[in-house]
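# step 3/5: fold
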Amino acid sequence: MADECDRSEIVTAFLLNTCRLSPCPRLCDVEAAAELCAGIAGKHPPDDDEAEYIPLTTGSVAEFYIEPMLPLVGDVDVMFHRNTMLVIPRGHPPPTQLPAEFHNYVNLFEIVDSHLPGYVYLKVGYLLTQCTDADDGGKYNSIKYEEEGYMTQYHDQEQDVHGPAAFMDNSDTHAQLSVDQVPCVRCLSWPSQAADWPTRHRDYGWPDSATLDRVVSNGCDLVRVAHRQCRQDEWMGKHQWRLSFSRAEIVLINSWTPVQQITYHLLRVYLKTERLTESADNSGAATLSNYHIKTLTLWACELKPRSWWTENLNIVAICAELLYTLSVWLTDTRCPHYFISDCNLLDNTFNVGSVASKLMLVDEEYLSTWLIDNYIFRCAQLCPSYVVRLFDDVSATVKLENAVSAVVHWRLNTSLLHLLWTFVFCDSVILAAVSRHSVTARSCVWWMNELTTIDKRFSVYFSAVALLHVAREITRSGFSNKLKDILSTVLARNFIHYYSVSSRCETEQNRSELVELLQKSAVEHLTAYRQLVAPDFGSVATIVTTDFEALYAYKGGDYQRCLQLSTQNVHTLLYARYVPSFATLPEFIQLMDDDIVSLTALTLFVDPKRRNQTDGLFISQLTVSLYLMTQCQLKLHHSVTSLAQTLHYIKVAQRELPHEYTLDHLTLKLAEYKACRTISHLLYKIANLR
């Protein structure tokens, strides 16, 4: 086996070559946006119709910018606060101006220290009311509440979600993200409990002054969690809140170098794989958590010189030293809070003695071997079988290097295809979220803002989906004020026919006119989206840009135009290496004919498991193009020769498509049946004429 130095160098090189900077977009970002926009943004608390939730993505999705081969995002963490509640540090004057997200009245509470650092109570303070005078727009007046009292840990039961989000497949892990929603109360000011954090002496200049200023300007949040020692107390268990620095952690971790982010990722993987971190419940002994690892790495970034992270770079040695530091902390029952100087994240309720003993034995030699066996080999299993087989014998350094190099090579060579898969699944996540949740004008604003941040092209796609969603709802229930608000939000600036049509949609005829206009505009948006995305992937996939345009032409009876587009698409896609698909959820299926709708329903009926798929059934661009080509030839009375050529194309597609593509095979079988029946009828007529 390779010696210690060789193994550490091989592991370090592997990590640097495979933990690439995250592509834009990342599927987890779109998943988080879907949770924010469809699940929280613009929604009202169950006990207050005036208030709205303001969400924030936190945790791994927001913190990491690297993308290792093994997943670093296990769930989507979302914090959300009411826009009618706010807290300030005790002794601070009430604010006279608030961000636009807040309501025109806001209940203001003061932070009062408890006997435990980092845990506080929220005392009733003021009522803030927005000025109605035009000259004072945006400013607030304050009225002191006379009664004494403290905020209890309010429960937004409708928003307490700890369950599966929409299915995601990132092509490497086939992971399913879960959603963890955490209600909180917003504090716009930096808390006095951490007052010395911005000004404490730092030998090595991290964080720099700009990062410090940004962290402090973001303030903090209060989450409804009592200290473990207080949860059984009748009063403290209901009234105690914990200071949350999630906003600060996002800024700080995003300022780390790639090596520092990789180190944090590896520490989490090691401790989780070795079952040294477990989720603690509300009773019994506490255990080590990811937050302790985060705290350890934050301190290391501040206390270690830059040279420690860069000179003679050895990520394995860095991780081994930090694990030893953690073992000392655990032995001493000491884990200093990174922001609050007098707060210890460990106490005698933590059952960490055995963890400390195990970590004390971790050195560079052990860890390099562990990472090869438990990290790199797991990465290899994501590769083709010929790569995996190289790890059957890595007894010599050169064999280990060859095996690891093969994984790196595969990773680099498939990066563009991986990004394409990301786009395809991002599309399905957006479509599924809009289709299955109630969209509002406010949530549309959130959607467009969030998606523009991730990738501007997604805002074009979302506009198309939103248009189709409105068209579907008009067909089902008529044109309501809610739908008018959505349209004015999404399309008022670029949909010039909107006002003229919507103002005349009281009759069924005018409603049909509006639905047709919405569908047409949606198809234009979808075509534009395809045109924006397709050029990026020409070397790994074939994406036609006119598939939705062909569907719309067929739906409108323009069979000649549909045939022209579909024939071009078939010739382009028939022997392509990779052909994208799209989901047959209601927003898209309204563009399809009754036969495909029936086949979709039949597929769901025959295979009940598919009914629970949040992103619906998929059908490929090639299948849709072949079906439309066949239908148009039949309606335009094409010759036997023309239909026979199409039958040949169908046979090729049936042979190439995977067996599990049920809807594709059913659709092609139907097209084949129709073509064969017509050919038989035409040949019969020709024979009789003779």
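# step 4/5: annotate
Residues 261-382 form one domain.
# step 5/5: archive (pending)
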